[in-house]
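Reply to dn_fold:

You asked what the input looked like. This is it:
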Amino acid sequence: MKRFLTLAGAAYFFAASAVADLRATGDLGVVIERETGSVQVINTSTPKMLSRIEGLGDLSHASVVFSRDQRYAYVFGRDGGLSKIDLLQDKIEKRVVQAGNSIGGAISQDGKVIAVSNYTPGGVKLFDAETLEQLAEIPAVYGDDNQLSKVVGLVDAPGGRFVCSLFEGNEIWLIDAKNPRQPVVKKFKDIGKQPYDALLTPDGHFYAAGLFGEKGLALLDLWQPELGVKHILDDYGKDDEQLPVYKMPHLEGWTVAGELLFVPAIGLHEVLVIDKHDWELVKRIPVVGQPVFVMSRPDGRQVWVNFAFPDNQTVQVIDVKDFNVVKTLQPGKAVLHMEFSPRGEAVWMAVRDEDRVMVYDTESFNETARLPAQKPSGIFFSNRANQLGL
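and this is what came back:
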């Protein structure tokens, strides 16, 4: 009888320990620690670090996507590394170095295919999300001389497709990956000079690529791709003095707030407001510096903006109701990235030169938490698993 009670007690102990270690994947996120090649796994509801995972290579321009069940994070490193991280077991599940210089990636609508966009060699590679087996390679060949272009602005789109842009090639590619071993590519040429990044509207309808080599954006209607790519905002700021661009602006899906797009203006200290119905410029909002990220709170009421050097210690908040800057914050030196909690009550900021992550309440603008981190850059929450284009 005594032995039975001992075994029962041990079983209870191990069961209690297992319950204590359980994590809800919807509560998880990843902070990139760029200089140490590591990531922190974090709890987003009760801000704290759960673990640190090392050995991820060059994370100087890293980005992350999540599996549909939110258990795995796929980290795209600048050195061409593609790493699959198990967020529940705090370990690298699988890692491959698939190129010499990589700039990001995406996961397919069904969660089965990982696509990676590469600078060197220029192109897109497709991988099995479970095993990281390479399924296909699509060289970004353009022009009569078959040159290779850097690939930027890669996003997932409905219908088992990916969309990307060729920086030197001045093209947008629509990749049908329903059969990922034999992808079909539709190429749109001469779309504008030097597309540098792109956004997909949250409904997956439009793909808009920013142009570094000329004014305006290139717009592709994914519901009607046969209509080709059209230019929008060709004339904005053409008579304004162009200021130095210290860091290329980034376009992301969260720059869409309701029926409006909020876009960083290249070479100007402005955020552009675009009406999604007719793609006309609605407003030019003056801000303190050159915007890098222009990100909308999930309810679309606020847009938060961070800036390139020498103004990268500042964050400004725009009220979408009247397009006014309603708050200017000084979180610290080098605010590199922001991420909203799934319902938008909080925003997390990576403050690289202060070696910390800071959390702010989006209504009161008060700081609510800070976490130590080693030169943090990107912050990514697992709710991205359920959003197109991120």
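The chain has a mean pLDDT of 90.
Hope that clears it up.
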